[in-house]
Every structure is written in C-alpha cells, then in structure tokens.
Amino acid sequence: MDKxxxxxxxxxxxxxxxILHSGSARSKVIQALTEYRNENVEGAxxxxxxxxxxxxxxxxxxxxxxxxxxxxxxxxxxxxxxHAEDHLMSTVTMKDLVKELLELFKSRSL
Length: 110
Prior knowledge:
Blueprint: H1 11-37, H2 41-70, H3 79-107
Helix pairs in contact: 1-2, 1-3, 2-3
C-alpha cells in the first residue's frame, strides 16, 4: 500500500482517505468474525492482518495531520473530518474487540 502524502491533498481528500482506509479495515474485521463463525480460522486471522495494514495507512495519515498541527499549521475543523476521525477510532475499537473475542473463542475451542 502506497503511503499517502497529505501535503498533496485537499482537506476533504484527507478526510476521505481516512474514511477509505478505516472503512476497508472495518469491513475486513466484520468479515473475519464471519469467517471464524464459518470455521475458517486461518481466513479470519488473515483478514485481521489485512485490517491492521489498512489501519496502519489510516494512522499514518492521522499522524501526518497531528505532526502538521504540532508544527503550527492549524487543521480546519469540519463535520467531514469529525466523521472521518470517528470512523477511524470506532474501527480501531472494533478490531481490538474482535481480535480479543477470536482469541477467547480459540482458547475455549468455540
């Protein structure tokens, strides 16, 4: 996955990149749970690894934004940005929860 350089994007494009990567991760997390339920443990594990990569891309964008603001360039607030940040954080929470659930299921042979 190519690294996104936010200096080349508009504020709206940055938000949509966050939504794109976190949305892709969210879909893979949900699919991982479905795969596990269908007894495809390896497939579930692979989907969680892929979700982690998508989240890494989103976190990189987020870090660039924080770094830019720490350098003195204010990030304009918008509802779209707030939605993108919310999307990212809820996906991180979902990934962590599903990962722990799958480990619990494995340990109890469920």
